[in-house]
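Let us practice reading a record.
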Amino acid sequence: MNPILDNISKIVTLTPEEAQLFLSKTETKHYKAKSIVLNAGEICKHSYFVNSGLLRSFNINDNIVEHVLSFACEGWWIGDMYSLLSQKPGNLFIEVIEDAEVVLLSKENQEQLYHDIPKLERFFRILTENSLVANQERLMDNLSLSAEDRFEKFCSKYPTLIQKVPQKHIASYIGVTPEFFSKMKARLLKK
């Protein structure tokens, strides 16, 4: 079956006609590693679903330090939610870490699908709620857990990403410098 339809079917059931209509509103693109899918300062016009490969979203602060906000591997969605929903320029970059096949769903087509297939509004609402919960949990972890605990939680929550994501990106995601991350990882391996 189609990966994006499999993803949707975990929450709502589409008829074959609805599935065809949904697919007709999407576009599939292939990206090479290190490609930028979205630049900070642009308006995010799509939700991105990863069929294969690996992407990350990040921003760059005034000191030219990258802060990784999220990763998306096969079967995950990614985008700049602020920009997509407000249709204002965002502050996130979305970069391809590993060659990827990505399904793009434009905001315009998503809105049309809400009208044509109302259960898709439920699907995207639940997806957004899950994202909000995950972001709140991550914020609370960053405020209350040690760097080692954040790393251990990352490893247990995303075991497949440990081997795929460069260490500097994991360090950024958990909020430490690559140097600190390297020393911390060495300490953890000695335990």
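A brief commentary: Strands lie at 26-31, 36-38, 46-60, 66-73, 77-78, 93-106.
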